[in-house]
Design a protein that fits this description.
Blueprint (H helix, E strand, L loop, with lengths): L7 H13 L32 H22 L3 E12 H6 L5 E9 L5 E6 H11 L20 H21 L7 E9 L12 E11 L2 E10 L7 H4 L8 H15 L6 E3 L8 H5 L14 E6 L2 E11 L2 E9 L2 H7 L1
Antiparallel strand pairs: 1-5, 2-3, 2-4, 3-6, 5-6, 7-8, 8-9, 9-10
Helix pairs in contact: 2-5, 4-5
Amino acid sequence: MTDPVLTEEEKGALLEGVSSGQVEVHANGGPTYADVKAFEFGPNSRIVTNSFPRLQSLNRQFATRFAKQAEQLLNAETVVTFNNVANIPFSEFGEKGEGLSLLLEFVPKPLDGSALINLNSQLVELLVETFYGGGGNDPADPAREDAVFYTPGETNVATMFGNAVLSIIADVWQPLSRFAPEMLGDHLSSGVIDCIDGGDAVICSEFDIKIGETEQHFHILWPLATVSSLVPVFEGQKRERDSAEDARWDRSLRSRLTDAIVSISSGVGNTSLTLRQVADLTPGDVINITNPQKGVIFASTVPVIEGRFGVHDGRYAIETTQWLGAEADAVSN
């Protein structure tokens, strides 16, 4: 054991000298505090919440439409209701899990990244039983709680359910973004999911689904990195139009419109036949048509010009006489 730096006698002498003032102690003048400036919430300040009102509206529309789609898939009475939406870390969602879950990964093109549909084990079993004509599982039955995998048959039914979800998402979200979602594969909640880390934030939409007399729930998980461009819309913000930018695009589109290539066509005559006469036609029959006096020129399928039908340089032709429609008159001038 090493000797102490100060002996007991030296410690006593030091304390006595400090208290009597014989020993000078250098101090920093007392505690110092950082300056704190008052902060005022201005009128334009905005508190960001997790409510996402626009997303909630989309989820309610999704629930209504998806119920009909699920009924056709399962051939059973189905009710789907939107429960809630929350912005949480993916690890927190996993901690709230109810045993083994099946996670269906999909790509919501044109967005970058992946998203997930979470189906718990009870719902997977319910979907399989109902799809194959069963009466559904007992909610109190713990048969799947200790499962460690899903059979190919269970996965196939769950994937069909997931594809039905994606078809309704693409339909409901069309005013917001033209999605072409594509299923990538499935993962077990007990495994490692490459498309997302535990610390990544996800927007979790929860839905209750009642099939027959049995009720379960499922989740759609949107990683924040995937839908970052849509978050302002989820929060109900509106994009402010730039009139100068709109005018520039208008000029650009108009200047390129005249270079667009369209197919030109025209009818050469017409006649009327009864349905019986049409049914009695055989190869070699001749259909008489009226001698065309006027012809109409179509740009794609839109009638644009009317003229006289005739022959020019040995070829059938139409001599234009007038533009059709008010817009066409303005263009001709």
